[in-house]
Design a protein that fits this description.
Largest sheet: 7 strands, parallel
Number of strands: 12
Shape: elongated
Helix content: 25-40%
Number of helices: 11
Strand content: 15-25%
Bound molecules: NADP nicotinamide-adenine-dinucleotide phosphate
Strand order of the largest sheet: 8-7-6-9-10-11-12
Length: 312
């Protein structure tokens, strides 16, 4: 008999029927609430909160197969207490997200969007030696706040641009250091020395609000801040203030604390590139993410261990 499972409807086009054998799928659109019933698995998008109430309403649930590498939308403690497995999609989105991080770094360093706006507005009067002067990357310092899979992939792209790499992490990454010349420092030094600071820590109680008025003030004047991790690592109002005052040079964000809502002062702040959470948005990557999520469900429902559990 096919297993009853809930799967985010937005993944339908990314999955082939052959991947869905033995599953009796109820497609759940992002704007629908999580229903009550006898489903044994759920494959949610990162925008769906899955916690105590959902677990109570889904008493037969065995696995939450999140379609994302981050899993701050799942109450892990409540899941573990009920013996429900939680899985994510690590690895497959690393390179796509690192590419997007670099798109933001280059866009801000070379004032790409301001240039596009100038041309589109019809106000461009021709080449000028001091027009839209940007930041020369060679010889500058890239700081990685967190150097896991994505942070390291961002760092590995830096040496050809002549950037020196500093990083923070709770555990040293010797292979990454050998490969790139990166140096592990404490958060104070990272903030003080980075010309470009790129955030790659997950959203956890420790990292929430790590970038706030006080830490922003410790960054170099004119520095560029990039966040392709999770929005709540930054206090958005404090970031808006720093940009308004001209302390921070620019900010490139893909993620926000309360998506899709973006703090109105941040939307209005100068020198930003604000993207709609598209870090992993390539077709190949999104297909792989959907595939891993479903493989985790198939594995657990056939009595095997999950492929990518978030806790063991
Ligand atoms: P990961 O491999 O788990 O890397 C996170 C790193 O952060 C770990 O290596 C960890 O190293 C470090 N870390 C954790 N807490 C820290 C702290 N308090 N201070 C300093 N470092 C800390 O995860 P990943 O695959 O690189 O993904 C990172 C995050 O990116 C995900 O959690 C997800 O939220 C986000 N993401 C966003 C998009 C997007 O579409 N924009 C796409 C993919 C992922 P230590 O354990 O050594 O500290």
């Amino acid at each position: 008999m096919a297993h009853p499972v809930l799967v985010a409807a937005e993944l339908k086009n990314l999955l082939e029927p052959t991947q869905l054998v033995d599953l009796d799928i109820t497609w759940l659109a992002a704007d629908q609430p999580t229903p009550k019933g006898d489903w044994v698995a759920i494959v949610p998008l990162l925008s769906r909160w899955v916690g105590g109430t959902e677990f109570k309403n889904l008493p037969k649930l065995r696995i939450v197969a999140n379609c994302a590498v981050g899993y701050n939308n799942v109450d892990l403690v409540a899941a573990e207490m009920r013996g429900i497995l939680v899985t994510n999609t690590p690895g497959v989105l690393t390179e796509a997200t690192a590419d997007l991080t670099w798109a933001l770094i280059l866009a801000l360093a070379r004032r790409l969007v301001e240039g596009v706006d100038l041309v589109r507005s019809g106000q461009w009067t021709g080449w000028h030696p001091e027009q839209l002067l940007g930041l020369e990357l060679r010889g500058r310092t890239l700081g990685l706040l967190g150097a896991g899979r994505i942070g390291q992939a961002v760092g590995r792209r830096a040496p050809p641009f002549g950037l020196r790499i500093l990083y923070t992490a709770r555990t040293p990454k010797p292979e990454f250091e050998r490969e790139t010349g990166a140096r592990r420092v404490d958060t104070n030094q990272l903030l003080a020395d980075s010309d470009i600071l790129s955030i790659h820590v997950p959203s956890t109680p420790e990292t929430k609000g790590m970038i706030n008025g006080e830490t922003l003030a410790r960054m170099k004047r004119g520095a560029i801040l990039i966040n392709t991790s999770r929005g709540d690592v930054i206090r958005e109002e404090a970031l808006a203030t720093s940009l308004e005052l001209g302390h921070l040079g620019a900010a490139g964000l893909d993620v926000y604390a309360d998506e899709p809502h973006i703090h109105r002062r941040l939307r209005a702040a100068p020198r930003t590139v604000l993207l709609p959470h598209i870090g992993s948005a390539t077709e190949a990557t999104r297909r792989k993410m959907a595939a891993i999520a479903i493989e985790n469900v198939q594995s657990v429902l056939s009595g095997k261990p999950p492929l990518t559990p978030v806790y063991s």
